[in-house]
Amino acid sequence: MSNVLEIVDSLQSKLENLLTKYELLKIENQQLLEKSENLVQEVRKGKESINAIESKYESLKVANAMVGSKEDKHSTKLKINTLIREIDKCILQLSE
Predict the structure, then answer these.
(1) Has UniProt tagged this entry with the keyword Coiled coil (predicted)?
(2) pLDDT tens digits for 31-86?
(3) Neighbours of 72 (CB within 10 A)
């Protein structure tokens, strides 16, 4: 009988240890999920920042091209012509 009680006590002790570890792992998992969400938000903000900077860079390239050499002016004219064609397509689609 004493042997059975020892086994039961041992099982109870192990079960309590497992439950404690489970709770700790649950808390750690929640913290890691929150950290992951924060990192995803940081990455999203970084991508938005990169896109904004790239847009400003393109604008600066166009502005510098207008002031710069003939090669830059040629590429700017080509870009403007492309934009005009796109605008014309949009106007045509709206008029249909």
Answers:
(1) yes
(2) 999 999 999 999 999 999 999 999 999 888 777 766 666 666 777 788 888 989 99
(3) 15
CA 26 to chain centre: 26
3-32 pLDDT tens trace: 888 888 899 999 999 999 999 999 999 999
Q: Measure Cα distances from 66 to 11, 47, 75 in Å.
A: 81, 29, 10
What pLDDT score was predicted for residue 1?
A: 67
C-alpha–C-alpha distance, residues 52 and 58, integer Å: 10
Tokens standing for residue 15? 């079960």
CA distance 81 to 75: 10
User: What distance in Å separates the CA atoms of residue 32 and residue 40, rounded to the nearest whole number?
Assistant: 12
3 state DSSP class of 54? helix
DSSP string, 25-54: HHHHHHHHHHHHHHHHHHHHHHHHHHHHHH
